[in-house]
Predict the structure.
Amino acid sequence: MPRWKALPEELDPQIREFTGQLRRLVDRSGLSIAAVADRTGYSKTSWERYLNGRLLAPRGAIVALGEVTGTNQAHLNTMWELAERAWSRAEMRHDMTMEAIRITQARAALDEAGGPRGHGRSRPSGAVGTAGPAAGGGGSPSVPAQRGSVPRVPQQPQAGPGAAPGHGLPPAVAFAAGLGGQQPPPTRRDGGGRRTAVIAAVVVGVLLAVTGAVLLIGPDDDSEGAGAAKTPSPTPTTSAPVLPAGVECSGSTCAGQDPEDMGCGGEHVRTLSSATVGTSVIEVRYSETCAAAWARITKAAPGDVVEITAGDAGQNGTADATAAAYTPMVAVKRTADVRACATLASGTQGCTAEASE
């Protein structure tokens, strides 16, 4: 059974050649991956990813491997720089692909939420339009009142130029309401005059009540006539980000999670910044796909503590006998806010420089 797995077909040729060189160095040294991990300070899991082309080894790991295998550091660093550029180009292509997918998803969501609709308000199903004029008269068209609204008072025909003031009301009603008109002639004492006055008072009371209600509610702002229903605006839909296969979280859902368990490592991660504290190396590891970052410490002594901060959020981890450790993730909105710091068991402290956007 071969010692090494076949490298992924989609791997960049420059990265493939560099990974093959790393494999040959390990083969010539006669060391197992566990022994390489123990002597370099990088975990066995990390070296398996480096040597299988799933993750580009950081410069610190390459320097450590060169020391262990007695390889010329200048040549090894040159090959690493070429591979790092190729890896960055591959990440850029991946980012552009993900951006195109997000744009397509956003357009589809907007098209679904903002379907074709008219400029005005649509009438409800079954609504009746304006009716024609009444037979023999020039009255205003009748429209159905909207459910739950105060019915409109039909307009009375306008009085002619020579008519007495009364706003179109019968003379007796107008006179009783104090709106002009003429006092009706005296009637016989058979109760007819009293009935007319009572009817006029009732009509005036109803008109005043309806008018007051209409004034309190306010004028209808529907430009297409009463009874036209308002079409509710659709609620915009927001689609969740599309994550690659194996990635289990993004942004705030990654906070406090293990980056390896959530699939944020491997091809989805890069180093934003690094620093040497004492004899240890700390790095800010960032995954744009997961919108999260974490800190890693290597060449550490048991009890060394590494911490990641992004704004007010922070996580920490403690190195054990493996001489390496990494923190849980924090959500990242601006990469400039992310820093990694270490406090060694010896008391030495240090942090990475601020990362650029």
